[in-house]
Amino acid sequence: MVMAEDAAVKRNRLALLASLQALFLEVADIAELQH
Predict the structure, then answer these.
(1) Mean per-residue pLDDT pooled into runs of 10, the chain (35 residues)
(2) 34 lies in a domain?
(3) Contact at 8 Å (CB) between 29 and 23?
(4) Which of 12, 13, 23, 33 pairs with 6 at a CA distance of 20 to 30 A?
(5) GO molecular function of the protein, one example (predicted)?
(6) Cα–chain-centroid distance for residue 25?
């Protein structure tokens, strides 16, 4: 779903995911989470 055929849509979705990743890393280092 993220990798759409339309390049503009794909860039937009990837940018949104990058923003979400940055937001999560501001809140907590999710790499430290364990099962």
Answers:
(1) 86 94 81 71
(2) no
(3) no
(4) 23
(5) aminoacyl-tRNA ligase activity
(6) 11
